[in-house]
Amino acid sequence: MQLQAYARVLLKRGWIIVLLAIIAAGSAFVFSKLQTPIYKSTVALSAVPSRPADWGQTQAIKNLLRLYVQQMQSPMLTQPVIDKLQLDVSPQKFVSYLSMSADEADLIVKIEARHALPATAAKMAQTLAESFVSFHNQENLQIDQRDRVLVSILSNSTSPEIHSPKTSTNTLAGAVLGALIGVLIVFALEWLESDIMRTAEDVERHIGVTVLGAIPTIGDKSDAAPARRRLSQSKKQIICPHCGKPV
To answer: Judging by beta carbons within 10 Å of its beta carbon (0-12, 13-18, 19+), is residue 199 exposed, middle or buried?
Structure first.
């Protein structure tokens, strides 16, 4: 299909694309506004070897980071946090509010807490980080000082921000999706009507020959009947000039 044909299709049915894009964007906007906002807050923990020049100890810490994540998800650490914050959830449910990641390059563990209440999200992340640091320091007391891994809070809980829904993102995605569906519908309709020729231009495009003339459409019988009656009446009004009688 040539560019002119695409332009013709868009000019003819472009309103379908615009309408579906508006409907989809509006629906996504309303759906986002009806959802309960979820806030997130993040705390970063750093782990450093007691002997920074010891390459072997540094490599060992990279493996320990995954262990630290598992420990912070265990009921042994989450239950005291739940009790301290007076949350009415189980340890498993509490963990579902968390997202943890270990950065082996920078020896950092990030704790991200999500909750419908922004203050609660910040307290969850901060309290869990403090509880783990206290727990780890107690474990260090049983290890030789030269072999200890020092864990501390690198940055306190960040100011809570919206995690979901992303209203602007959802609205834009809805508009794009609606426009794509509109494009598919437009070209589907054009494909269904591709074999129907309504005008001389359609015939010229189909056979590649210029149309020189067209046979006029014959009217319906309902239109022809009054015409015949009028013709009959007009004939009765014709008078012969010689005898003076109607023909």
So the answer is: exposed
